[in-house]
Amino acid sequence: MRPSRLMACVAALICAVTTHAGAQSPRRVVSLNLCTDQLALMLADPGQIASLSALASDPRSSAMADQARGFPANDGSAESVVLAQPDLVLAGTWTTRATVDMLTRLGLRVEIFAPVNTLDEARANITRMGALLGQETRAQTILDQFDQRLTRLRATPGPSPRVALYYELGSTAGRDTLPGDILDAAGMTNIAAEKGLAFGGALPLEDLVLTNPDLILIGRPYGGHARATELLTHPVLTASGKLRLIEDGASWVCETPHLLDAIAQMIALRQDWSAAQ
Fold this sequence. Notes:
- This protein is an alpha/beta fold.
- Helix content is 42%, strand content 14%.
């Protein structure tokens, strides 16, 4: 976009925002991040959303892909955001940094959400997004339902298998991460703690085998061949009988009630494992 056109768009945007300055809720929200996409989809009135990131409609990463397909997608550029004339831009800490910096310099309202590492942090982000969108009542209703279901899930009885989350390039997630908190809520014991990996990190195949977990959880790889995922199909793992596929990896990613679906899936897996012993 030519500088003159960009500045004209910015001038129009400032005028529009000033006109609606007294409005309680934002009227045109643009999201640049997968998790803010889903928070907006969950909490905003449909007419409040001007556009979402392209990832929002990808079922491999978004648990709300079906809902997202009815909305325009942006390409993450400052130009596409400015042309949408938003009065609120939602972004993540590590995404589209150049765009966020440009939009901030241009004076647009940008709210940045950090990645969450616990279910409590997920709850806090739902509350915050509800306040930003003027949807506090809707957010509280969702949180009340979230808490009630989480309490029921945590109360599910049964033994606690020792499990490993195993990712590309031989990495794992520790207890002080969102996947680790999901395992904890599901009543599973994460072997990363035994390895001193509170936040996760490298877990060589040899260490994984010697630690001898009851179950090894891996995600469904994207299509095609990648060297990063070769280790997940190593013969020592496939022959162990311990590999379990996380069918719906998108439920593990962002701060929505779909996290509870991930917990429920792990509880079902725990119960299947217990029944087989």
